[in-house]
Structures are given as structure tokens and as C-alpha cells.
Amino acid sequence: MEIVLRAVVVFVFLWVLTRAVGRTTLGELSTFELLLYVTMGDLVQQAVTQQDFSVTGGLLAVSTFAVLTVVLSWTQWRFPRLRDVVTGRPELVVRDGEPLTSVMRRQRLAHADLLAAAREQGIRDLGEVEVAVLEANGRISFFSRDDASSGAPEKPDVG
């Protein structure tokens, strides 16, 4: 039972930590960040199992994390208003070709990263962009002024 309690505490801590770190960090990991997360994973394992190297202890810890993930997913489905708290909501970062610097600062999104994401989607100039949305998963969606005529998906409702 102690392993389950430890797993719950560590799961909640990691959820809060990933929400605090910010969604841009989750979009793409640098080599350093990947190494950091792998190291954190090992430290978390030690904290959860408290040096219990048995198969049962490991399965119990992993099962607890899996159940908590399913519960969190179900909670978001059942109570849609909690989705913003659990995973965040999309944020407008460009409007009419102009970066919204206050939002970018709050989301810790560097201007260079915004431009790199635009280039990855074939956008040469932010002036071509009607809106850009920082999605909850850390990716940036760009909508150009001519998207409405090209049959592109509707722009999301962002806050």
C-alpha cells in the first residue's frame, strides 16, 4: 500500500511540475532536457519504490501511474471545464501578423522559437499569418489569411 501512496504523491508532483515548466518545453525536447527527464525518471522510480526492486513493487508502481492517467483522462472527458486546468488551453500568440509579446512572455515562448515554428510550416513572414495558436501540447498552429478559402480547419476557440 505504501508504494501506491508514494506513486500517487509522485504522480501529482510530476503533473504539477510539467504544468509549471510550460507547454513549449513539452513540444520538443533538447538533448539536455531529454537527459534531464531520463534522470528524473530514475529518481522518481527510487522515490516511488523506495529501493523495492521486486517485480511486484515495479508492477504496482507502474499500474498506479497507469490508473491515475486513465482517471485524469476520464475526468477531462467527464468534466470538460477541468481540461483547462489539467492540460491547459490554447493561447493566441500572433494576431494579424503581430506577435503578442505579453502572451509569449507569460508562456516563455521565445520569438526565435516562434519564427522557427513558422518556417517549419513553410511560412516566410509572420505578416502572412492571421493568427498563430500555442496549443496545449506545445505545438504552434498557424492560420494564414487565405486559409478560409482553402478549406483548412476552423480556427480554434482560444482564450
* Average predicted confidence as pLDDT: 80
Poorly predicted spans: none
Give Rg in angstroms: 19 Å
Note the run of SSEs as H and E: HHHHHEEHHEEH
Overall outline: elongated
Classify the secondary structure makeup into a structural class: alpha+beta
Strand-residue fraction? 5-15%
Assign a percent range to the helix content.
Answer: 55-70%
Number of domains: 2
Distance between the termini: 42 Å
Please give the order of strands in the largest beta sheet. 2-1-3-4
Q: What does the largest sheet look like?
A: 4 strands, antiparallel
- Give the count of helical stretches: 8
Number of strands: 4
Pfam families: DUF421
Keywords: Cell membrane, Membrane, Transmembrane, Transmembrane helix
Subcellular location: Cell membrane
InterPro entries: DUF421, UPF0702_alpha/beta_dom_sf
